[in-house]
Batch of 2 targets.
Target 1
Amino acid sequence: MDRRNFLRSGCALMAGSMLLPERLLAKEEEKPNIVILLADDLGWNDVSYHGSEIRTPNIDRIVKEGVELERYYVCPVCSPTRATLLSGRHPLRYGMQDGVCTPLTTHGLPPKEITIAEMLGSVGYKNRACLGKWHLGLNSQKFDPISQGFTYFYGHYNGALDYFTHKRYGQLDWHRNREACVDGGYSTDLLGLEAVNFINKHSDDSPFLLYVAFNAPHGPMQAKREDLEEYGFDHDKGIIKHSSKNRGKREMQPEYGLKGRGNTVRQTYSAMVDSMDDQIGKILEAIDKNKISKNTIVLFQSDNGGIAHFGGSNKPLRGGKFTLWEGGVRVPAAIRWPKKLPSGVKQNAVTGAVDILPTVAEITGAKKPEAQLDGRSIWPVLKGEEKPDPERKLYLGDSSAVMQRWKINKGRLFDLSKDPYEKNNIADKRPDIVKKLNDFIEKVESKAGEKCSLGPEKKGEFVPPKDWNLGLLDK
């Protein structure tokens, strides 16, 4: 079923609901609000509930009041994780597994993919907001959030946005829907404020979907002075040197990322995480004040592991962003729903971002897209009704996959039950497990699809559209 027919069938379902008995209408009204909070490059050891020195009381609150997802897997870089989170399908299927969407590429999340926003729109979720970093296509308006099922967008299309100027490659990349928006302030604060405003506006018009994709703590390394001081900023010491790679003429921002640096990269990174956690606290407070916390699902996760030279830490896990080691693809995550889920539970089952769409489909009664999903509903696991499935296999990308006990990473096999830090390759000792996982990987990778490229091909020196108006690229 294509997107148009999927949405049309959803409208028919909503129209038909007008004829349902009162008892069923009451049940319809009980659909939960859904809030998805996504951090950018947050490492395993960058939350205080994992023992970090960085203070994250509000992220910790979600863990304490909900289900901690101890074995939650994503892709090793951000665009693929965002794609799989919204589609329930491996980005391999549409050519997005390996890299991010940059201004120099022409591909993105294909318009034909049914996103979680479109799916929920078919079952009564009238207000569906995307706030923050999109990063799923920069070469056509057909890739933007409004074209992908969201009814409201506030934020930026690019990655690595300047937190203070909101510019990328010399052009303002800050939008309200499709119009350029000049809002002064630190981007993390602006996203938190917008999320609170959305909740205040639509708390009586439930259910809603709110997807908040923070750009923190991704580079450039920029924090507010008051947050830096909370982590010991010394005015008499020098600031960290510019850590971004010199992109020459492509960057076109000689002062890019200079403002907001601390004495050390870890200090700056810590202040950025702290600021994000503050805004998460304000979002949770808005949910509480509007008396909708009981029936609001809140999911928190990172998009991939942290980067050590940009201040992130994945200890004691091995590796980090860009790698398929645990530190690159296993991230902090938790889900809270006071009405239906237990609190203070640590769930050790293998789960991942690919499972969110099918899980939400089961919870809301939405019809899943007919395209083959790679995730599965983890609702019974979250409720504690099912134990971890020892045979479940989750594809991680590039000849790598994980099970409850086993993990294979490009031919190297690890027994995570005994070796969670991936120190001992035992592929020669368990050829049966190697074959099982390689057969699974081969099956998944045989379904690899082509990239969806739209808009003009990039030739010569790149010049971004004014105010990052993607519609100009389609003309």
Target 2
Amino acid sequence: MVHTTMEGSLFEPTLYIVKGMCILDNEGNRILAKYYDKNILTTTKEQKSFEKNLFNKTHRANAVIIMLDGLTCVYKSNVDLFFYVMGSSHENELILQSVLNALYESVSILLRRNVEKRVIMENLDSVMLAFDEICDGGVILDSDPTSIVGRAALRTEDVPLGEQTVAQVLQSAKEQLKWSLLK
């Protein structure tokens, strides 16, 4: 897929589709955010200013997409939270929307359909893992909420060796042996 502009110049296809993802509360304050492009929104101050502006433009709107500061932003709100996925101005909105849906559905499954600020704050580690399972450095890794949640749940079960019971250590060893034999 090659994108063109009005001037006719070509944008080379790239795997780096997502510029950032964030979750804001109902006052526009950051709950969690990750930015992947080192050329835009490089400081925390710039990011928070962008987020505040984004929130102000979207918190009363009925749309699901907005162009802001050269970025295509798709968003979804629920109870007291706003979920955002940002891409470049020439990015396919449907791809960004699928990432947004994956993020929202993954969080929803992780939190047992109780998607609200208090519950997210209590389970921030799991939500952060879901972010990492969806996108790495701007490259979309997965958009299937079930597999994202499965991998995020596996990673939250990585208890330090000193805190594991003997049964847990033996089970972990069995799993590792099984996977090494299957390779």
